Structure formats: structure tokens, C-alpha cells
Amino acid sequence: MSSNVNISDFIENTEVTWNDMCYSDTAAKNCIVNTPKDDKILVEIKKTAQLIIQPCIEKFGSIYISSGYRGAELNAAVGGAGQSQHSTGQAADFWITGKKNMFGLYKYIYENLNFDKLIVEKPPSGWCHCSQGGGRKMLMVFDPALGIRYQQKTLSWVQKQYYS
Ligand SMILES: [Zn+2]
Fold first, then answer.
1. pLDDT averaged over consecutive 10-residue blocks of the chain (164 residues)?
2. pTM of the model
3. Residue 61 is part of which domain span?
4. How far apart are the CA of 116 and the centre of ligand 1, in A?
């Protein structure tokens, strides 16, 4: 499968293309080729699209993915964490198109999907980071304005703090 992936093809059983999962403004600007070759990574990208993104599309209509897979070169360019699940194809950053209903998105994922880490990034608008693969179901918050750097929180704390 590896060398035969066509970036504009849809990932099977999803409305997500490989390009949606691999495209990056930063990569384009810096002429970084961000197409995975490793079979293991391709399998994980596919699972992220099938287990996380597609159910959100079915629930909310349209999802915008700002960052999915990040190869080593791109991850360095965006200053991403060395052990980022973006590098293994297991994570994506996204929101409902138009950034409507951020809390609804978090709540839906938290209560319905088999995710690993769900991060409320720079709320109340910001973006949703979600990964699959470990099944830890960890909900975390990254809010530099409040000095919160990846602390574990409950869904009701998030709602009370930012969305009520
Ligand atoms: Zn992320």
C-alpha cells in the first residue's frame, strides 16, 4: 500500500482524503514533503480518519483539519513535541467548520469515541487535538492564558470554565 497512496484519494470508509490528513501550510511554505512512506504510519493515519474524524463528520457535518500527520521535518518546523502523536499519524487538530459548537465537539468525542488523548487547545475558540491508539481516554487542557499547560481536567470543569 505504502508507495501507492495517492494523496487526493479518499481514505476507505471516510469522507477524508489523504491530503486532508497530510496537508500543512507550513510544509507547503517550506517545501517540505509531508507524505508518509512507512506502512505503520499509513495504517495509523487511516485509523485516525476512520475512528476520530469520520464520526465527527457524520455527527456535525463538516470538519476542518488544520494539522494531521506531521513527519519529522514538519514537526520540527512547527515546534511540535518530539514524541507527538502527530508524528506517528495517530493525532489530528481540527474543529467543526466555522468553529461552531466547540464544546459540543469535545463532549461528543469524550462520550462516544474510543480516543486516546483529547486536548482542549486554547479555549474557548482554539482547536481540538485528538488522538487514537492508546485508549487512555485522557481529557486535557492547554490554556496558556490561565497558565494551564496540558493538565488533566473533567468535562464539567471545561464546560463551567469556558462554555457556560
Ligand atoms: Zn495536535
1. 75 97 92 91 97 98 95 90 90 96 98 98 97 96 97 98 97
2. 0.94
3. 2-162
4. 12
